[in-house]
Amino acid sequence: MNQELFGVAPPKKLFVKLAVPSLVSMLFSSIYMMADGMFVGKIIGSKALAAINLVFPIIMIVFAVGDMIAVGASVKMGIKLGEKEEKEASNIFSVALLLTTIINIIFMILSLFFAKDIIYILIKDSELAYLSYKFAYPFILGLPIIAPFFALDNYLRICGKANMSMWVNIAVSVLNIILDAILMGYFKLGIEYAAIASALSMAFGAMIFLYPFIMKKVVLRFTKPKINMKEITQILYNGSSDFLGNISGSIISIITNAVLLHYGGPVAVAAYSIIMYIDSLLSPLLFGMVGSIEPVISYNYGAKNYERITEFFKITCVVSLAISAITTIIMFVFPDFLVGLFSSKSDIEIIQMSKIALLLSAPSYLFSWFSMTVGCFLTGFKKATESMIIMLAESVVLPLVLIIILTKLMVVYGIFLIPTIGGIVSTIIGLVLWKKCVKEEFQIAD
């Protein structure tokens, strides 16, 4: 199945087969994330919206560990399947899922004891800290189930089940929106119920994802895990770029929120959270599309089909640029509509700041897609170091330098210009590294 699908099928046809379901599923996931923001912003208020934006980077740091294992294991599994070593791929699958579950149980226990203190230390505003902890608590309790949901989604796509992944993600998204509407829209319950709706929806999705693996309907099977520390180290290394990207992005978000809270107060943080919710529509689309191709990249790398990899890269670039360009145009043409989705008409100050922030950050999408694409492709054929360089430049070095420079020049509004400037520089870095790796690794014309 994988040989016929990943190694032989025409690239454009295979891209559509894999990327379209991923795009649709990520679109629905993005819609439910935006729905969370809309319900919270319009029903509970802008302070609650700011609280979610303050605590969510902390939650994502915990999720990043599970994502590192999932991405790293996916690369190893894809390569092993390309080398026709299905039993070894199944063992990696079993070890990775066991490791993900154990680590998140440990995180849950530690978080129950220390999360509240950490949140109150990081968030100086006591009301925002209180709301943030209320939102985080359901995610803490759900960690052992939520983390496998994301991992199993990755593993299912490796097995060529992109359509099933799409439908499960749609079901999870619809369920989340329904629960939001009932709990917050109808019963007018608090901020923690937005998190409860998300946690319950993802737990439902995880149970469905388990079915084909338990019933042996896919190429990857549950086996008695044979733990090999060298293999685990390789998994962690392969996923290290994504991990550092996620964790550094979260740390930068924490720093950004602290700067905004200092210079602009809760209004600036609320405006930033609106921009992040709007961003949650595009970035997951691109990441999901590129991620859906990653198993093909790993498979063809293992099978030494290097020309297919470059063909997929060209197709992915064209589609990513088209999506990003359309999104940028929409942001420039309809800023009032987009900002109004997450704010009430009485929040005049937040609306004005959010519109300016949106226009300053919108051009970043014309550039950021390229570094994301290059990073995922390099990870797919075990170029984790080069992928990490792109990630560190885009997610850590450039934001930190620009925060220092732009806040002195433009104060709060300088923060909103960082994605655009950072996107331009990271695109240049990504282009240089891609050309270098293609010539060295594939020994074919780029």
TrEMBL record:
Q: Which Pfam families match?
A: MatE
Q: Where would you find the membrane-spanning parts of this chain?
A: 14-35, 47-71, 92-115, 135-155, 167-187, 193-214, 235-263, 269-291, 312-334, 362-381, 388-406, 412-434
Q: Which NCBIfam families match?
A: matE
GO MF annotation: an example: xenobiotic transmembrane transporter activity
Biological processes per GO annotation: response to antibiotic
Q: Per the record, GO CC terms?
A: plasma membrane
UniProt keyword list: Antibiotic resistance, Cell membrane, Membrane, Transmembrane, Transmembrane helix, Transport
In the bilayer, the protein is annotated as: Multi-pass membrane protein
Q: What is this protein called?
A: Multidrug export protein MepA
Cross-referenced InterPro entries = MATE_fam, MATE_MepA-like, MATE_MepA_subfamily, MdtK-like
Q: What lineage, starting at the top, does this entry show?
A: unclassified sequences, metagenomes, organismal metagenomes
- Where is this protein localized, as stated in its record? Cell membrane
Similarity remark:
Belongs to the multi antimicrobial extrusion (MATE) (TC 2.A.66.1) family. MepA subfamily.
This protein's record includes keyword Nuclease: no
Which organism encodes this protein? human gut metagenome
